[in-house]
């Protein structure tokens, strides 16, 4: 039962990561890292496929070994935060406009304290 939960969670995370490749506010790499975590507990073959993937493998290994996020990833995330704040400023009434600002401040603070790959 536990193995099936992790397998379904891994596929769901991978699907969200794939959507993130096309939707600017949905992150890709964190969902792929989560998928690798889930596949490590359910399907060694799928985990190996992700870890050796030419696009995402190095992100997964950097996170596992050092908890590291690349500078390029940090900059991309910060740009996505800025875009979401801009969109919220246009379309959201007060005080809802502050939600992306608070989320960006909290998440961005954590993100920039991670070591770089």
From TrEMBL:
It comes from the Bacteria. Keywords: Membrane, Transmembrane, Transmembrane helix. GO terms for cellular component: plasma membrane. It holds the Pfam family DUF454. The chain crosses the membrane at residues 12-40, 73-91. InterPro entries: DUF454. Coiled coil: none annotated. This is Inner membrane protein. The lineage of its organism: Bacteria, Pseudomonadati, Pseudomonadota, Alphaproteobacteria, Sphingomonadales.
């Amino acid at each position: 039962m536990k193995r099936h939960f992790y397998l379904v969670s891994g596929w769901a995370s991978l699907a969200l990561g794939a959507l993130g490749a096309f939707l600017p506010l949905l992150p890709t790499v964190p969902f792929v890292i989560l998928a690798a975590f889930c596949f490590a507990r359910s399907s060694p073959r799928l985990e190996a496929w992700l870890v050796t993937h030419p696009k995402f493998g190095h992100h997964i290994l950097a996170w596992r070994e050092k908890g590291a996020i690349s500078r390029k990833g940090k900059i991309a995330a910060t740009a996505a935060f800025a875009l979401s704040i801009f969109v919220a400023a246009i379309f959201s009434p007060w005080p809802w406009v502050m939600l992306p600002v608070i989320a960006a401040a909290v998440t961005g603070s954590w993100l920039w304290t991670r070591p770089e790959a």
